[in-house]
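forwarding from the other thread:

> can someone predict this with zinc ion?

sure thing
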Amino acid sequence: MDPVHEDDLAARLKAYEGHPAAVAATGKDPVNVPMIRHWCEALGDTNPAYAGPDAVAPPTMLQAWTMGGLTGHTGRAQAYDELLALLDESGCTSVVATDCEQEYLRPLRPGDEITFDTVIESVSARKTTKLGTGHFVTTRTDVRVGETLVGTHRFRILKYAPARPPKKPPRPRPVVNRDNAGFWEGVEQHKLLVQRCTACATLRFPWLPGCAHCGGPDWDTVEASGEGTVYSYVVMHHPPFPAFDPPYAVALVELAEGVRMISNVVGTPYDKVRIGMPVRLEFRSYDDDLVLPVFSAAEEDA
Ligand code: ZN
């Protein structure tokens, strides 16, 4: 945004300070025991002050009594919607709640019927945060029972234009633990190692601490030949993980040795991957310290 427009926007935003965001709004429910109980259960708050015939509401519930739910509350003033629309138009399309502050003037008790007024207290100058550049908007809600001010709730949001996403993140690292460390050591040496139970000779993959066939804890390894076929596959479209470029095929490959493993089929368009397709192991470097076993189409014997 060029400086002239930015100054103009700043002035227009500033003009909303002091305007109402809600006028003479009423709580959707009176202060009540079930909502207090649910709140205390959700927070694990067992303070005896919040139960029994003389119960008061937890003070931090102040905002809960003003919430409009899905349908909103009556009394919402146009100025707040206009302010948010202006911020949207200026590119600040994202929103995050940053903090709230509350003051308690007297306890709320079951049966209290609350009303409230909300004012746009401040709109900050343009600020740059890790999330992006935008404006902090602070509203102050004065909560009353009858004519008595019982509490004040300040709520601050940041409306911002998201920072450009960072360059493509690296592919996720495998989780290496005591049970599978030997597998990843093999991968480093471009070997695909399959565990073999030394008691019953059953092969197993992925790596596990014991034999699923006989329960034996002891094992050695055999190196897979690298020949296999696609036993099944899925094509990932959604959700798009940042390190990957959908669509791509994820295959369950049956190795010549009989065990199956999940990996990518590379070098073949995702929509050409087929069940029964012969594939061959290769080790692909994804970055300086990540090598993964993947599969590519094998030449079928003529
Ligand atoms: Zn066994």
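The chain has two domains: 3-162, 181-301. thats all i got for now
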